[in-house]
Specification:
2 domains, elongated, DUF6102 family protein, transmembrane, TrbL_4
């Protein structure tokens, strides 16, 4: 029975080996610039066309929101404070337009900074480490049933984490597409949905950076023969989004509905944890 299981484990790991090299290529660009890979697979600049359409739509919404808010405030007197300086509303309007127009450039700078930091971290972790996965899999299989099972779990998590990278890349792409519409919230004094939107945006980018670093760390541990530590590290990489959510504080203050809902949820989680 054990010999049969070892044959099955070896077959599974050998199948995974075919995808390992392609999985580790272009992780950062794939997450931050998913449209390049999608356009290449589709054979045309479909995502670029979507950017242009949604940008025009978002700018139109910003203009309409500004006109509607100004009309309701200073002519109908049914929205906001009519004594507020009109220059203030004009400032909000200009700010929304500037952010919507300049965001592609700002995002390019931000992605370059995050990618540079990620590359430096990876260079430190991968220094002197040569990944030969055929040798790694052979050593896992030769170690017996328990290392073989742990190896299957590790490489299965590796494949799953790669799918999560693709999902996060698409998530960042969708957030980028929606930025012009999120900028409509900047016309309001409380910034509307924009603040929460950007919070989610930064969380996704930090998630990508941490997951890639943890993935490379787990591979370095495997290469050095520490399979259990490597498995624990890749589990941590999978848990990164939930881990980062622990530090998110929703805007709205203590009296806001969203703030109260968040506090109630955290209180319930703490009570459940204490009971367990």
């Amino acid at each position: 029975m054990e010999a049969l299981l070892m044959v099955l484990i070896e077959a599974l790991l050998s199948g995974v080996l075919e995808y390992i090299d392609s999985i580790l290529l272009n992780l950062v660009p794939m997450a931050f610039y998913a449209e390049r890979f999608l356009d290449q697979m589709l054979g045309r600049d479909a995502i670029s066309e979507l950017f242009n359409i949604l940008f025009s739509f978002g700018v139109s919404l910003i203009i309409l929101k500004f006109i509607k808010k100004g009309f309701n405030t200073y002519i109908l007197w049914i929205d906001g404070d009519a004594d507020t300086d009109p220059i203030l509303y004009l400032t909000y309007f200009v700010k929304a337009l500037v952010v919507a127009i300049s965001f592609p450039t700002l995002y390019g700078w931000m992605a370059t900074i995050v990618q540079g930091l990620t590359d430096k971290l990876l260079n430190i972790i991968s220094r002197g480490v040569i990944a030969d996965f055929s040798i790694i899999i052979a050593s896992v299989v030769s170690g017996g049933l328990v290392p073989g099972i742990i190896g299957v779990i590790f490489f299965g998590c590796l494949l799953y984490l790669y799918i999560k990278f693709l999902q996060t890349g698409l998530e960042i792409l969708v957030l980028r597409l929606g930025i012009p519409m999120a900028c409509v919230g900047l016309v309001d004094s409380d910034q509307g949905v924009f603040k929460t939107y950007m919070q989610k945006f930064f969380q996704s980018m930090i998630t990508v950076m941490l997951q890639i670093v943890l993935l490379k760390l787990s591979l370095a541990l495997v290469i050095n023969g520490h399979l259990i530590w490597a498995t624990a590290t890749i589990f941590m990489a999978l848990r990164t989004p939930k881990f980062l959510q622990e530090f998110i504080i929703l805007p709205g203050g203590q009296g806001g509905m969203m703030g109260k809902a968040y506090q109630a949820t955290r209180l319930v989680q703490m009570v459940r944890g204490a009971v367990k």
